[in-house]
Amino acid sequence: MTGRWPTGSCVLPRSAGGQQLDSASDWRGVSVTQAAPPAARQPSRSRWIIRFVRRRAFREALVGYALLLPGAVPMLIFLLAPIFAGFFFSLLKWNLLQPWTFVGVENYATLFGDPELWEALQVSATYMVGVIPAGIVISLALAVALNTGRRGIIAYRTLYFMPVVTATVAIALLWRWLYAGQIGLLNTLLASFGIQGPDWLGDPAWALPAVMIMSVWKGLGYTMVLFLAGLQGIPEHLYDAARIDGAGTWARFRYVTLPLLSPTTFFVLVTGLIGALQVFDQIFVMTNGGPYRSTVSASFYIYETGFRLLKMGYAAAAAWMLFAIIFVATLIQWRLQERWVHYE
């Protein structure tokens, strides 16, 4: 071993007799340990914090959070706080007039044996199964038909989207007049063809389908715009390649359009499921839960229990149960999307 050893960074050990080792031959069998840097050279924790604070990225992040704070505080107050308050109320027995009583999970235990709640959940499930597939199919057909550069297409798109920006209560009142007995516009049109229309909102067999038809019509514009955006994002060269391979119109739609629209379809399914299980406005205005409670949805049942029967704790527990059902259904959709959703 030749060469000089740096003495500024090493501790030179001594021999057994105490003599300093300085030659190459004297270093055989001797381990060399790195000397600890002087304490004065180690940056203190306060200096490290000062350097971190002075970084540009930290200052930019601090400014960003400061700009988000005015919007985050109202969200915490008016969104998250009521959620936790609702969970606390679900553990109480309270009618808004008398002092509340803590009952724990008794409200949740009672829910599972409540036949009216399960009937309301069945109505919500029927509404969801009827509205979501029909809305997707019709809106996708409209999007494909309007996905052209022909003159006047923008006007048609605007007309289809107008019900979306109109208040649900106004739309429900309009359709209630259309459905009105034998004097409504719909039954009048059917009578002109010799068909006697049913009592749409007065017959238990027709009340829920009537509400579903109105809901599908109102949501067509929103879903159509989503599908239009997805269609316009599909590269044209994929269709050209399919034509060269001899694919017809249906084959191009099945093997090119549908797979590349799967992310949009997935988004429509998730949002549609959440909205369908929470349906309330249409039922409240058009049928008020009737006739014979044939249109009492889960949300309407929660409203009725809390604000008509004044069972606030029980209604809060039902609301949390509905939230759990929606959460599980959405989670299942997220799990299944890996099998049919294509992002490339």
Identify the quaternary structure here. single chain
Architecture of the largest domain in CATH?
Orthogonal Bundle
Average pLDDT for all residues = 85
Cross-sheet strand order for the largest sheet: 1-2
Helical content, roughly? 55-70%
Report the CATH superfamily of the largest domain.
MetI-like
Task: Give your account of this protein's structure.
There is one protein chain. The strands form two sheets. The protein has a two-stranded antiparallel sheet with strand order 1-2. Strands 3-4 form a two-stranded antiparallel sheet. Residues 1-12, 21-27 and 30-36 have low confidence and may be disordered. The chain has 14 helices and four strands. Helix 8 packs antiparallel against helix 11 (262-277) and helix 11 (262-277) packs antiparallel against helix 14. 66% of the residues lie in helices and 2% in strands. It is an all-alpha fold and 344 residues long. It has helices at residues 45-54, 56-89, 106-111, 115-146, 153-165, 168-178, 185-192, 204-232, 236-244, 249-260, 262-277, 281-286, 298-308, 312-340; strands spanning 10-11, 33-34, 92-93, 101-102. The protein is flat, with a radius of gyration of 34 Å. The two termini are 61 Å apart. It folds into two domains: 45-89, no CATH class; 106-340, MetI-like fold (Orthogonal Bundle).
Short note summarizing the structure:
This protein has helices at 45-54, 56-89, 106-111, 115-146, 153-165, 168-178, 185-192, 204-232, 236-244, 249-260, 262-277, 281-286, 298-308, 312-340; strands spanning 10-11, 33-34, 92-93, 101-102. By secondary structure, it is mainly α. The longest helix is centred in the first third of the chain and has 34 residues, at 56-89.
